[in-house]
Each structure stands twice: as C-alpha cells, then as structure tokens.
C-alpha cells in the first residue's frame, strides 16, 4: 500500500519524507490556500519545491472546469516535473480531459469521487488514480469505506489498472480499514501517518525495558 501525504505544507512533507515511508503527495486548492500560496507563479514554484522534496507522484489540481482550460492548465502542470499527476475534478469535461491526458501519457488523478459509477467512468477514461473521499461521505451520514470496497471490487472484476487512492482519510482506523479493503493508496495528513506509531503498551513496555536495564547497568 502506498502512503501519500495530503498537504501543501513543506515542513509536514519533509517530516514524512524523513520517516522514510512516503510515496507521494496530494494537494488541492484549499490546501494551497491554507499555506497562503497565491498567483500562478507562486503556485507553480510551490509544486516544484514539493517535487524536489519527494521521490513520488505529486497531485496538482487544475482550477479550470472547461475542457480547453483543463487541458491548458494540466499540460502546464505536467511540464513542471515528471512526478506531477494532473488532478482533475469528476465532471463531464474532466472525464474528456482525462481521456486526452491518458492518450498523451500524462498521469491523472480524478478527484471528488463520491460514487462507484463516477469511479468506473474515470477508470474507463484512463485515469491513473481515482480519489474517493471517505471522510466527506462519513460527514453526511454515508459509509465512505463501503465506497472503497465497491470500487476495489469493480476494478478487480475487470482488471482496470486505475489505482484506488482513498482520500479524505481522517484518522488511523480509516487508514487501517482502507488497507484491509485493498485500497492501492491512502492520502492523509501527517498526524494520521505518525498516529500509526502509537500504542500505549509500546510506551509502557519500553519504559519498563529501560528501567530494568538501568537497575542492572546503572
Ligand atoms: C484528496 O485528494 C483531498 O485533498 C483530501 O483528501 C480531502 O480531505 P478532507 O475531506 O479532509 O478535506
């Protein structure tokens, strides 16, 4: 399973890189805005910095919602660095653009997926990744993890190469359940990745080991 970090914060990305388990990064316009990145030049330069930090796929989202605009922005993003994956929203022109990008060998991540039908359409268009949003479905009283299961099953039935990138993963149990269901990738904030480190019995056990060692060795 691949771990992507869902942030545009360079410090958090660096910390995840240093942990040695990071496979890529996802961003979105809200995450870029949170870092105060504004204007095309600043956005492009920020993506370049992220690509320099991480050896893996970096999803950069288009803002345009019309076909020509998505193609223009997507090609400019793809030109930035070989690791850029063009993140395209699940809309009609987005699907057409994913088809175009896939024929040109440009990697894509179809974002804002909330149904199995949307995921199937994106896979048929040739998306590299689909991003079903687990947490946002849970937020409205649906079962986000059930959607992961549906998409994993459908892609496996037909052997689609499109990878299931579980997004909007908010806590450790989400991540573990995505792993159990066979999601190819999870993307989540740094605290979810580092949350995997913790168990109270680990802390208690280590404290005992160190105390016993000290009793004998001083
Ligand atoms: C996916 O790529 C999105 O950036 C992200 O996972 C959304 O997460 P949120 O619902 O916690 O904002």
Written overview of the protein:
- With 218 residues, the protein is an alpha/beta fold.
- It has a single domain (2-217), classed as Aldolase class I (TIM Barrel), CATH 3.20.20.70.
- It is built from 11 helices and 8 strands.
- The protein has an 8-stranded parallel barrel, surrounded by 7 helices.
- β4 (84-89), α5 and β5 form a beta-alpha-beta unit.
- The longest helix is centred in the last third of the chain and has 18 residues, at 200-217.
- It is globular and about 70 Å long.
- The mean pLDDT is 98.
- It binds erythose-4-phosphate (E4P).
- Its main location: cytoplasm.
- One of its GO terms (cellular component) is cytoplasm.
- Transaldolase is important for the balance of metabolites in the pentose-phosphate pathway.
How would you summarize the topology of this molecule?
Blueprint: E1 2-6, H1 10-19, E2 24-26, H2 29-34, H3 40-53, E3 57-61, H4 67-80, E4 84-89, H5 92-103, E5 108-113, H6 116-125, E6 129-132, H7 134-139, H8 144-158, E7 163-166, H9 172-181, E8 185-188, H10 190-195, H11 200-217
Parallel strand pairs: 1-2, 1-8, 2-3, 3-4, 4-5, 5-6, 6-7, 7-8
This protein binds erythose-4-phosphate (E4P).
Erythose-4-phosphate is lined by residues 6, 26, 28, 111, 131, 133, 135-136, 167-168, 170, 187.
Subcellular location: Cytoplasm
Keywords: Cytoplasm, Pentose shunt, Schiff base, Transferase
GO molecular function: aldehyde-lyase activity; transaldolase activity
Entry summary:
The chain is an alpha/beta fold and 218 residues long. 56% of the residues lie in helices and 17% in strands. Helix 4 crosses helix 5.
């Amino acid at each position: 399973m691949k771990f992507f970090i869902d942030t545009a914060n360079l410090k958090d990305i660096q910390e995840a890189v240093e942990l040695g388990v990071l496979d890529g990064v996802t961003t979105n316009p809200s995450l870029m805005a949170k870092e105060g990145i504004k204007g095309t030049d600043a956005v492009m330069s920020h993506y370049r910095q992220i690509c320099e930090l991480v050896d893996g796929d970096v999803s950069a989202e288009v803002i345009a919602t019309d076909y020509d605009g998505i193609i223009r922005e997507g090609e400019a993003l793809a030109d930035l660095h070989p690791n850029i994956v063009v993140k395209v929203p699940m809309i009609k022109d987005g699907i057409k653009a994913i088809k175009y990008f896939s024929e040109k060998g440009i990697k894509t991540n179809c974002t804002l997926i909330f149904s199995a039908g949307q995921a199937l359409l994106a896979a048929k268009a040739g998306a590299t990744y689909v991003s079903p949003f687990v947490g946002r479905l849970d937020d409205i009283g649906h079962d986000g993890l059930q959607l992961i299961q549906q998409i994993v099953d459908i892609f496996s039935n037909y052997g689609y190469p499109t990878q299931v990138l579980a997004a909007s993963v908010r806590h450790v149990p989400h991540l573990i359940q995505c792993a159990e269901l066979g999601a190819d990738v999870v993307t989540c904030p740094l605290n979810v990745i580092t949350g995997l480190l913790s168990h109270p019995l680990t802390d208690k056990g280590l404290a005992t080991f160190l105390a016993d060692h000290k009793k004998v060795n001083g």
